[in-house]
Automatic annotation (TrEMBL):
Its EC number is 1.13.11.-. It is found in: Cytoplasm. One of its GO terms (molecular function) is oxidoreductase activity, acting on single donors with incorporation of molecular oxygen, incorporation of two atoms of oxygen. Belongs to the lipoxygenase family. CDD domains: PLAT_LH2 (cd01751). Its main location: cytoplasm. Residues 93-216 form the PLAT domain. Pfam families: Lipoxygenase, PLAT. Pathway: Lipid metabolism; oxylipin biosynthesis. Plant lipoxygenase may be involved in a number of diverse aspects of plant physiology including growth and development, pest resistance, and senescence or responses to wounding. The lineage of its organism: Eukaryota, Viridiplantae, Streptophyta, Embryophyta, Tracheophyta. Residues 219-914 form the Lipoxygenase domain. This is Lipoxygenase. It comes from Tripterygium wilfordii.
Length: 914
């Protein structure tokens, strides 16, 4: 309790508010009387001492005199004070400025912000929760023009000495405009300040008449909710769930589920029709419901909201101003980068194919604008953005250039080397598809009647000379062979993909050999096409080069592997497994877990911004004719490939240890620190990831054991069970009957489920996202699409290939327009915003929970994360670790926890926030 008092009484609000009188000061200043009220019982399982609430009453706050002989029988009225912290908008449009001034004026005549304190206790006479009088925020009009990140207001309540402890506050906003309420702290109770972390938009009563309810930071399981808060707990959850009807307004705070039926726009034409994702025909996770009307031409397709109009997400899920500014700046950069090559392409008779590697280099050195003087001088003057572009051109030429990606900043030609190709499978932007080869040759699982023979074209003679004298069987038994296998994922789509204009793909398999140095060496690539007839040459094997011709064929084969890999990375591992698969758990958490629930408090930072970034993706990235379709080989079939991979998605395999074991990259070993032995010790993603996984797991176990002392508490926790059930049965409805879903019956079950969710939202997403521009920004390293197949000797194009292999290679890569659009997008996606919250950090770290023991444990978790960062730094300086240290080798920092803003190729935010 001493620690609790110290933390509770040393909040940032107390330190920064000069007008706030602390409880200790109240006791010092002529305390007239101390009257005991009923004792406050915190949860019995928390082993906290029973603290009697002591109402400190000062002479100047004394309301009504009480005869001395009745002082212990009748309650005494006294004042308590609220400090309310509001975050004003730093930028306002003309309408918002006008309404702000109107609110400042009408606040003086009673159209104000009103608060009511609600006790944890029931009034025995009324059988209703004890309530204070209504109090209004003071000096709203005086402070309306204050230019600060936070503005503090005060309000005073009158309560009596039997009031108990406040557990909730209702807020009514009688202004015309919403405001962002960050926190409320109540001072005046002898037991110490009571904190209410709010972090929510409070809407105007005229459009949202119901009062907003905020609970104190004291966590309560549903069964232990104080009597005074039980009905409010249910009322708040009902309001968040809504009724599932009607179109959502941008100011709503309602969470509900829907299928992905808004990616296409059939009203624009048949080429914009896309299938609904989610349901029996095409299983997929559910998204946040918006309730927009159907399109005119398809009653099952939801009408779209096109940029720049905003898509609905619950109001508190929208980007805060700092994040929005950073994101808008990134979009501006993308507009400039896309605008110029678009115009350049339209002025030219050809498609601006890359003529040489110098064309790519100039994107970083000269920039696009500088290369097109006619656009500068003539066309830009006619564009709506002309003044903006001119200003930027004059003030900062750098904005019009791309930053040099890290992959070529150390070694311009690293991408050409086979060892770098192998290194990136374990330490690049997509390190989660490498598997131990369990049988050779590999065999397809596809239906042979539809997709042709299941046998691979790979033979022992293709790889035997690359095994350091081993036989193939020896190499398999000694765990020396590894594979990245995209055959079954791509083959069913290849006829449709290759039928698209300017898109060509294979279904690839790549075999790697583990060298004595601990690095992977590619030793064979299988390229498959759908069989077109009995004698079709649908499978081809390419091996490391022996001469100039085979060298260029090998480089083209690797480029096709990287194109496959880029698609799987973006559509399956990044978008599906972190963004889309997490959304149902987030929606269900808001619908079923009260803000008072300790598990909601644990998950809260790991849900930040995810619904907003997913909505923006539906609007701009994964939609019909969006960026993903434009930039990746599968084109209009991108999301169907994503949905196909969902068929094999299993939540129980998404945790890092389970995933490593499933891929054969690790085996269980209780003698190892994390219970696993990696088959490749220098596997940076896995070795760093296990450090973070273990830290998360330890923190979650400490947290769960604090609130659940036995399994019956977990089984009987109605909110917890409803959250998990709804996440599965509604959010992942197409997998609801799967037997692999983990049970939720014990503490170990809950720890495992929560650790997996936090891992996916934080470290897994970081490992897959923030290296995109550093690795993909140099398009030849990882081309997102390919435009030509590799010519056979009998093909007419083979002569052109022999005559100028570099030109052929560059023509197979994306065009300049496609490349620059892709680069602009991954630049934005790889950028940390200034308000990013990294793992081990929390908003309001000392008051997010009222449980002092948990606050102390969280600081321990933060310290462990800082130690992990130091350990990762040491590993990156260890020359024996060839996959992360060496001449021209990028250190592996994608799981280094902290980062500065910008594109840093490091940093683990708490949530899927970009």
């Amino acid at each position: 309790m001493a620690l609790s008092r110290e933390i509770m009484c040393c909040s940032a609000i107390e330190r920064s508010s000069p007008f706030l009188t602390s409880s200790k000061d109240l006791l010092k200043q002529n305390t007239l009387l101390l009257v005991k009220s009923k004792p406050v019982y915190f949860q019995r399982r928390m082993n906290l001492k029973v603290v009697p609430t002591m109402a400190a009453i000062r002479e100047d706050l004394f309301i009504k005199a009480v005869p001395a002989d009745h002082q212990e029988e009748k309650p005494v009225n006294f004042k308590v004070r609220a400090v309310v912290t509001v975050k004003p908008k730093s930028k306002e449009d003309l309408k918002e400025t006008f309404v702000k001034h109107l609110d400042a004026f009408t606040d003086k005549i009673g159209r104000n912000v009103a608060l009511v304190l609600i006790s944890t206790e029931i009034d025995q006479k009324t059988k209703a929760p004890k309530r204070s009088n209504e109090a209004v925020l003071k000096d709203w009009s005086k402070k309306s023009n204050v230019k600060a990140k936070r503005v503090h207001y005060t309000a005073e309540f009158i309560v009596d000495s039997n009031f108990g402890v406040p557990g909730a506050i209702t807020v009514s906003n009688k202004h015309q405009q919403e405001f962002f309420l960050e926190s409320i702290t109540i001072e005046g109770f002898a037991s110490g300040p009571v904190h209410f972390p709010c972090n929510s938009w409070v809407q105007a009563s005229k459009s949202h008449p119901e009062k907003r309810i905020f609970f104190s930071n004291q966590p309560y399981l549903p069964s232990e909710t104080p009597a005074g808060l039980r009905s409010l707990r249910q009322t708040e959850l009902r309001s968040i769930r809504g009724d599932g009807k009607g179109e959502r307004k941008l100011s709503d705070r309602i969470y509900d589920f829907d299928v992905y039926n808004d990616l296409g726009n059939p009203d624009k034409g048949i080429e914009f029709v896309r299938p609904t994702l989610g349901g029996k025909e095409i299983p997929y996770p559910r998204r946040c419901r918006t309730g927009r009307p159907a399109t005119d031409s398809d009653m099952y397709a939801e009408s779209r909201v096109e940029k720049p109009l905003p898509m609905y997400v619950p109001r508190d899920e929208q980007f805060e101003e700092c994040k929005q500014d950073a994101f808008s700046a990134g979009r501006l950069k993308a507009v400039l980068h896309n605008l110029l090559p678009s115009l350049k392409a339209s002025l030219s008779a050809h498609n601006h194919d890359l003529k040489g590697f110098s064309d790519i280099d100039s994107l970083y050195s000269k920039g696009l604008l500088l290369k097109v003087p006619m656009l500068q001088d003539e066309l830009l003057k006619k564009l709506p953005l002309s003044k903006l572009v001119t200003t930027i051109k004059e003030s900062s030429q750098g904005l019009l250039r791309y930053d040099t990606p890290k992959i070529v900043s150390k070694d311009k030609f690293a991408w050409l080397r086979d060892d770098e190709f192998g290194r990136q499978t374990m330490a690049g932007v997509n390190p989660v598809n490498i598997e131990r080869l369990k049988e050779f040759p590999p065999v397809s699982k596809l239906d042979p009647e539809i997709h042709g023979p299941q046998e691979s074209a790979l033979k022992e003679e293709h790889i035997l000379g690359h095994l350091n004298g081993m036989t193939v069987q020896q190499a398999l038994e000694e765990n020396k062979l590894f594979i990245i296998d995209y055959h079954d994922m791509y083959l069913p789509f290849l006829d449709r993909i290759n039928g698209l204009d300017g898109r060509k793909a294979y279904a690839t398999r790549t075999i790697f050999f583990l060298t004595p140095l601990g690095t992977l060496k590619p030793i064979a690539i299988e390229l498959s096409l759908p069989p077109s007839g009995p004698s079709s040459r649908s499978k081809r094997v390419v091996t490391p080069p022996v001469d100039a011709t085979s060298n260029w064929i090998w480089q083209l084969a690797k480029a096709h592997v990287c194109s496959n890999d880029s698609g799987v990375h973006q559509l399956a591992n990044h978008w599906l497994r972190t963004h889309a698969a997490m959304e149902p758990f987030i929606i269900a958490a808001h619908r079923q877990l009260s803000a008072m629930h300790p598990i909601f408090k644990l998950l809260d930072p790991h849900m930040r911004y995810t619904l907003e970034i997913n909505a923006l993706a539906r609007q701009n990235l994964i939609n019909a004719d969006g960026v993903i379709e434009a930039c990746f080989t599968p084109g209009r079939y991108c999301m169907e490939i994503s949905a196909a991979t969902y068929l094999d998605w299993r939540f129980d395999m998404e945790g890092l240890p389970a995933d490593l074991i499933r891929r054969g990259m690790a085996v269980p070993d209780p003698t190892q620190p994390h219970g696993l032995k990696l088959l490749i010790e220098d596997y940076p993603y896995a070795s760093d990831g296990l450090l973070i996984w273990s830290a998360i797991e330890n923190w979650v176990r400490t947290y769960v054991n604090r609130y659940y002392t036995n399994s019956s508490q977990i089984c009987n926790d109605k909110e917890l069970q409803a959250w998990y059930s709804e996440s599965i049965n509604v959010g992942h409805a197409d997998h609801r009957h799967a037997e692999w879903w983990p049970k939720l019956a014990t503490s170990d079950d809950l720890v495992s489920i929560l650790t997996t969710i936090i891992w996916l939202a934080s470290a897994q997403h970081a490992a897959l996202n923030f290296g995109q521009y550093p690795y993909n920004g140099y398009v030849p390293n990882r081309p997102p699409l390919m435009r030509r197949l590799i010519p056979e000797e009998s093909d007419p194009e083979y002569a052109n290939f022999l005559a100028d292999p570099q030109k052929y290679f560059l023509l197979a890569l994306p065009s300049l327009l496609q490349a620059t659009k892709f680069m602009a997008v991954v630049d934005t996606l790889s950028t940390h915003s200034p308000d990013e919250e990294y793992i081990g950090e929390r908003q309001q770290p000392s008051i997010w929970s009222g449980d002092a023991e948990i606050i102390h444990a969280f600081y321990g978790f933060s310290a462990e994360i800082r130690q992990i960062e130091k350990q990762i730094e040491q590993r990156n300086n260890d020359p024996s670790l060839r996959n992360r240290c060496g001449a021209g080798v990028l250190p592996y920092e994608l799981l280094a926890p902290s980062s500065e803003p910008g594109v840093t190729c490091r940093g683990v935010p708490n949530s899927v926030s970009i």
